[in-house]
Design brief:
Elements lengths: L7 H11 L11 E5 L2 E4 L4 E4 L2 H4 L8 H13 L10 H12 L5 E5 L2 H19 L6 E5 L8 H6 L3 H4 L9 E4 L4 H7 L4 E6 L2 E2 L5 E2 L2 H14 L2 E5 L23 E4 L10 E5 L1 H4 L15 H14 L4 H22 L7 E3 L2 E5 L4 H11 L1 E2 L1 E3 L3 E4 L7 H18 L2
Parallel strand pairs: 3-15, 5-6, 5-7, 7-10, 10-11
Antiparallel strand pairs: 1-2, 2-3, 4-12, 8-9, 11-12, 13-14, 14-17, 16-17
């Protein structure tokens, strides 16, 4: 590689000169990973509890993923959706067999999956009800992506600043405000869009009662219930899909991140009746569901669907949450730990970004949402001894810096 051998500072200098300034990046460059660990370009090792923002949910260098990539690279990387793609069919079959859905559309990211869901909802509404039905209701503090439509669906104005005029037809209600949702839904509503747990918003779970209210309102008004499981799907909460905890079935669900184990892929799943609103030419994606991404997706599901896998995830996740709760009580940080499975948030009244930096210096990678909530997204197959190491490092940091 052309930049091999550069120090971190050299890498940063080159990067700033050629890469657009769209991220507030930490002063490090990751070069390799294995299991729950990554190494920077200078060889320092870190325990990674960010995992590429919930992408590398089976950790790094997982043998099933490595094998799938190697084998597929030797066969074919890309054709196009002008032809049937065997791996795509196989992955769609696995997803539908283990979910509410009957049909799958593949794309390349979570934003694309949510964009597809919005388009499908409006197409379905126009087809069955008429031109008046196009409004999408989402939640305040939500995050659904960076395209203009998904940015507008995102209920945080800080992401929308500078992009007006935004697409019309979007509105918001507060998290778990069932009465507010009832007041908002009407004959013009095409869909309600919900993250079962608001990840980028600060790790706030949506209550089962609110999801049930949304389901009932959608049934009453002929709207679609869309669950955005881009961050919380694919085992992150301790079940394959987060909606399984509530028993509330959506009409449409979006996936990405962990589905590809590190290879970019997105998916939009729908019931048979809803999926029929899309016909050839209505939507497309050149790279969507290509042979490489879907080969890896199949490998990821093969691992996660092994007997006892999710029971083990749930046990270790509860162990981690209890450890965080002990630390929060020890240092009297205030609000309780939020989340489920291996998407957990630790609210802090102060020092959020500073704690992230202190942890990084000690060899633990975490991140902070909104300057106030430490977010933990370890591999869902993280070992218990690695959880203990992370808790020990957090204890060291708080003992030194929390006053």
């Amino acid at each position: 590689m052309m930049l091999e051998g550069l120090t971190t500072q050299d890498m940063i200098a080159v990067g700033k000169s050629v890469v657009m300034n769209t991220y507030g990046r930490l002063p490090m460059a990751i070069a390799k990973g294995e299991g729950s660990w990554v190494w920077d370009v200078e060889g320092k090792r870190y325990l990674d509890f960010v995992t590429g923002l919930a992408v590398n949910s089976l950790g790094y260098k997982h043998p099933a993923i490595v094998k799938a990539v190697q084998q597929q690279a030797e066969e074919i990387l890309h054709t196009s959706n002008l032809y049937w793609i065997p791996n795509q069919v196989a992955l769609a079959k696995r997803l539908t067999e283990h979910s509410f859905a009957s049909k799958v559309f593949f794309c390349n990211s979570g934003a694309e999956a949510n964009e597809a869901a919005i388009k499908l909802a409006r197409k379905h509404a126009k087809k069955h009800y008429g031109e008046h039905k196009f409004e999408i209701i989402s939640l305040k503090n939500s995050f659904h992506g960076r395209t203009l439509a998904t940015l507008t669906a995102t209920g945080q104005t800080k992401y929308q600043d500078g992009y007006a005029p935004l697409p019309a037809g979007f509105s918001y209600v507060a998290l778990n405000d069932s009465e507010g949702l009832k007041a908002k839904v009407n004959e013009n509503t095409a869909a309600i869009l919900i993250e079962p747990i608001q990840g980028e918003g600060g790790v706030y779970p949506v209550s089962e009662a609110f999801m049930q209210t949304a389901r009932e309102l959608c049934d009453t008004y002929g709207a679609l219930l869309i669950f955005d499981e881009v961050q919380v799907g694919m085992g992150r909460t301790g079940k394959l899909f987060a909606y399984e905890w509530s028993g509330v079935m959506p009409d449409v669900m979006t996936l990405a991140k962990a589905l590809g184990g590190g290879v970019p892929i997105g998916a939009m799943l729908a019931t048979e009746e809803v999926a029929q609103a899309f016909q050839p030419g209505d939507h497309a994606s050149t790279f969507g569901g290509n042979p490489l991404a879907t080969a890896v997706g199949c490998a990821v599901l093969d691992v996660m669907l092994e007997e006892g896998f999710f029971e083990d995830v749930q046990n270790r996740a509860e162990y981690f949450k209890q450890g965080l709760e002990r630390l929060a009580a020890k240092y009297q940080t205030g609000e309780p730990i939020r989340g489920r499975g291996f998407i957990l948030g630790w609210p802090l009244p102060k020092l959020g970004p500073e704690i992230v930096e202190f942890c990084r210096e000690k060899g633990l990678l975490i991140n902070c949402i909104g300057g106030k909530t430490l977010r933990f997204l370890p591999p869902i197959n993280v070992k218990q001894e690695e959880i203990d190491q992370a808790l020990g490092l957090l204890d060291d940091v708080f003992s030194q810096h929390w006053k």
